[in-house]
Amino acid sequence: MQRPESSDNAISGRVTPEFSLIARHFDRPAIKALLGVGDDCALWLPTAGQALAVSTDTLVSGVHFFANMDAVKLGHKSLAVNLSDLAAMGATPRCFTLALTLPQIDDRWLTAFASGMFSLAAKHGIELIGGDTTRGPLSINITVMGEVDADTALRRDAARAGDDIWVSGNLGGAALALRRLGPDGGNLGVAAALIEKLETPQPRIALGTALRGIAHSAIDISDGLVADLGHIASRSGLKATLFWNDIPKHPALGEEADSVQQACVLAGGDEYELCFSAPVSSRAAMPGISESLGLTLSRIGSFSGGDAAVEVIDVSGDRLGLPTLGFDHFSQQPVTSNEA
Q1: What is the set of domains in the chain, with CATH numbers?
Q2: Partner of 161 at 20 to 30 A CA spacing, among 26, 78, 128, 289?
C-alpha cells in the first residue's frame, strides 16, 4: 500500500480513487516498523535471536464468509484467523500486510471493516505495514509476521509418544451456527453466542506464548479437530487417541442428535481454539495457565507409537465411526451452501 503522494498514478496533483481509499482507511503511522505504509516495501528490523514466523490466509466471499456478513466482524475475523496461526506456533505478533480485492469502493463498508481489523490489531500489538488494493470479487488476503525463539516454537512435527493431547475452550459451536444459519447467512433465530463463535473468533495468542517451553506441538483448529490433529499425527509419525467424553463441547450442542454433535465437534471448522500436546510432567502447570488466562484447558487424549492416524473412543471403549473429516477447499461446497 502506497500513500497517494508517493504514487505514480497521481497525475497533476490528482489523487486516484485507489490511493484515496488507502489514505482514508488504512494509512496509519508506523509504530515499530522502520518504514510502513507508503513505499514499495515496508522495512522491519527483526529482534535479535528471534525466528520470524510468517503465515498467509485468504478469505473469499461465498467460500469463507457470507456476502452479507457484518463488515466490522469481517475485519476482526480476517485478522483473527491469521493471528491464530501465530498462536499455534507460540509466536508474538509483530506486523501484517493486507491485500484487498473489492467489487467497488464503499466508504461506509471500508470504515467498518477497518474498525474491526484495527481494533483486534491494537489488542495484540500488531501493525499494518503495507499491502495492495484491486478491483474484483470481494477477497481478503492477510500475511502476518511474528517472532519466536526457534527452540521453543510449537511445531507440528514435535509431538512425542506419551504426550497428552489438550484443547482450549469448547468445540462445535461455530459449526452448529453455520448449520442453523440460512443459505445466505440470514439469522433464523440463531443464538448470539453461536454467531459470536463463528464470526468473531478469539485468537489464543496468550495461550500460545504461555505454552512455550511447556508444550511440544500445537495447531489451531480451523478445518476440524480430527483433520487438524491429523496433521500433527502425520508430521510427528504418531497415533492420536481421543476420548469422546473428554472433549469439551459447546453447550448448545446438548439438544442435538449424536450424529450432529460428532460432526460439529470432530469435523467442524472455524473454531480457532488450540489443540496441543505436552508431556505428562506438564499436567501440573495447566491449571495455573488456565486460571491466569480465564480459559478452559481440557485433556482429551494422548499420542502413542503406531500408524500416523487419529482415532476417537466412545464411552463404551469402542472406536467411533468418524464423520466426513474437515473442510477442504477443493472437495467441499462453499460456506453459502450451508454445509458445516
Answers
A1: 4-148 (3.30.1330.10), 156-325 (3.90.650.10)
A2: 289
